[in-house]
Each structure stands twice: as C-alpha cells, then as structure tokens.
Amino acid sequence: EEEGKTRRDQVVTLQDHVIEQMPEYIKQGLFQNINERVWPISRNIPIREVEDRLFDLIQPFVRNGQIELIPENLHEQSECLIKGNFDILVGADGSNSFVRRYCNIQMISEGLEYACGVAYNIPNNIPSSEEPLHQALNCILTASQTRYLVNSSTSRRGYLNIRLIQDEYKELQNRLEIFQSHNEPLDLLDFNKCPQSPIWTIIRQGLQFFKISPKYVFRVIPIEINVRHASIVVRELRHEIDKNEKQTPNEYDEKKYKTTLAFLVGDAAMCVHFWPGRGMNSGMKGAIALARNILRSCTINNSINIRRPLRFLNFLDYEGFMARLRAREQQGRSLRVLIDPIDKSVEASYSYA
C-alpha cells in the first residue's frame, strides 16, 4: 500500500466452474476464512484473501525445497534473465507487465473507458442506522443501472465502482492531486475540501444509493479502463551462454545460446472491463490451462519426462486457449459495454439538471 498498490482492497467474484477446476486442498484452503455466496453460482472474496491463502498453501512446498521464494523485483539486469537460469518464465505481473515489455510483446487496445473506485470499510459495532444493505439488495441495485457497481465482502469491506465520462475522470484526477500535494487525507464529509462539484456529487450519490456512509470511505482512485490484449502469449527467448559455462575449450570462439519460454497470464495477457468483470476468473483459467499444457509437454506414457528446451510449438494449445478466452471475455462481454458508453446519458442529465 505504501507503494500505491491498492488492488488488494478489491473484492472479486469467483465463478463455481472455475473453482471446480482447482485441486481439493486449494478449494478448501482458499475459502477457509471467507466462504460467501452472493450470486447463486459464485462466491465473493477479497483479493487480499486470495493472495494470502494461496501464499499459505505453498508453504509446505517451500519447506521441502520444491519451491524457492525470491523476494525481489525482476529488472533488465536481473542475473536470471541475463544468464537464462530458467526454463519457463511466467509473466503474471499485471496490466503493466515487466515480463511483457521484456519480451517485446505488443498490446492491442479495443477501447478506453473511465471510472473511479471508492474503497470503504464498515466496522462491525456501528449504530443500526448505519448498517450496510444486505448483499442480495446490493446485487439488485447494481443490476438496475449502469453507473454504479458494488462488490464487497459481507457488505462491509469493498469497492463502489463508478463509471465516469472523461471530463469527470479528469476532474477527479485534479481534485486528488490537490489532496496529495497538501498531504491531506480525503474526507468526503468536509464540504470545504470536497465541495458539491460534479465528481464529489456523483460519488456521494453512489454511496447514498447503496447506503454507505461517507465516513467509512478511506480511498478514492481514478481508473482508466483499457480493454486490451497481448498480440501473443507465448514467446521463445534466446540467452547467450557465458563462455565460462561452456564444456568444450575449442568452442570458445563460437556463440552458444540457450532457448527458454516466456508466457503471459492474467492482466499481463488480457484486460477486461470491470462492469461485466471476470478478470480474476480469466486469470485463473489461463493459469490452469498453462499448467495443464506444461504437464502434457513434460509427460510421456504417464511418466514425467522433461524435454529441454521446450519450444513454442509445444504450447500451441495454450495460445489457442487464450485466443478463445479473449473472444469470450473481451468480444463477448467487455466490448458490449464499450460500444454502449454512458457519455450521452450523462451529458443529457447535466443539461436536465
């Protein structure tokens, strides 16, 4: 959070058909603390909880030496990248993926929209008049319009997402820059610092719509929604082998190369619109598909037989899977929102007001 990374506050909806693809011990461990059904065929869970539970679940593999955790950021001069001390590099590092840039994989944008996220945390011991709405009612209110969307855990901690037009987005950026320059906390109850301007009014109306008191808001962030995807999700990399590592002395004058593979998954491979959502689900589907493709490529007659080097052609299944997933989630869901923007409706409402 000190680095400005706020996504762990968000709450996601995991679909049952994705959960069912997980091993049993992961399903049990993932939902051991929070097992909340909001929609009939899915469960709500904070990203913070997903990451923390999965981190706990890999600890036995860390202790027995099967997994080594290296707490550092990759960069161009990382020794493992220069020397190619790996067989597979998986870029699951978000929409601003370093791995994608390192592999020189281009992104293709389908369109832009703007939004803001209003993070809130409602304590347990509060007056009954400030109790949040039931999750079922939050769902009905969210589905009844196309401006506001709430995704929360037990109705108390979550995000109110608000679609904005570009002028509203720019106003929010300017307003938040003032708070940052003065190093002041945001307080929606202070009308001197958050006056009845268009953007603050929109946020307050959304909070009122879902019966969330402004005093429980602890963060507002502008969001640029760039619905885009990587041109490819598998790339072969070549690394020059250091001369000191060569085995045959008379080959010192020749350049030797090692081939490795890089993959993109999650937001590094594809970004969807938050309104129809399923970003976390798409990321998990991609990760499962890649794991299965790796297993097939390293298995012969039910025995593990790791072939080196692995090649791009070994992973045509994964490339094809991600193309089909993109068609389903971007073309089939996100673009339906992009081709029906809220701009005209918002501008008409301003004229009416």
UniProtKB/TrEMBL annotation:
It comes from Rotaria sordida. This is FAD-binding domain-containing protein.
